[in-house]
What we know:
By secondary structure, this protein is an alpha/beta fold. Helices cover 38% and strands 18% of the residues.
Amino acid sequence: MLLLVGLGNPGPRYAQNRHNIGFMAVDEIVRRHSFQPWRKRFQAEVAEGRLAGDKVLAMKPQTYMNESGRAVGEALRFFKLEPEQVFVLYDEIDLAPNKLRVKRGGGSGGHNGIRSLESHIGKDFWRVRLGVGHPGQKELVHGHVLNDFAKADQAWLEKLLDAVALEMPSLLAGDAPHFMTKVAEAINPPRPKPSRPKSPHPKPPGKPPAEDAASDGESAAVEAAPKPDTPSPASESDT
């Protein structure tokens, strides 16, 4: 059993906020991988499914962001899990929009939801940080994360959420580098290599170089061979 937790605030008022990108990501994972319907349990909305051969419980704590750890801690204790079996997706203002980082353990970075989790289950859980960008000034951060994504954000946001959902099995299977690489490639596909231009004056068909060299050598050998001595007319008359 693994816990897959998205962080956010409950209710339609917050549904499209930057702070709710964790909820959005888990919603897309549940949809893409055909989890069971959402239901209420552990002070959260939960949905069960399977990824990478493991049973997975997706969670959206309904305790509001600052108390997210209460719901996750309750589920962790019920299933007798360890913190390293918990994967948490959340917004990160210190990452540019459309960027992602994955790490096991670490600090809260000032994120109240992560701080709550650390106080309830410890620090050794997996963190999937989804970049939403920084507004530039500290006093603007609160309004930035509690405002909706702009229309201009929708294109990259859809790509990011789709890639995270598609590649999540590799992360849960323990291959974080593969997960990050595949998400990055989906968001910014590598440019195709330019094809080499064809020569405007193609060479006429001929013998392969090896055969040409052998033929030239044979000709040279024949031309260089000494001619046999032949008797002169005078010698024949002497005999």
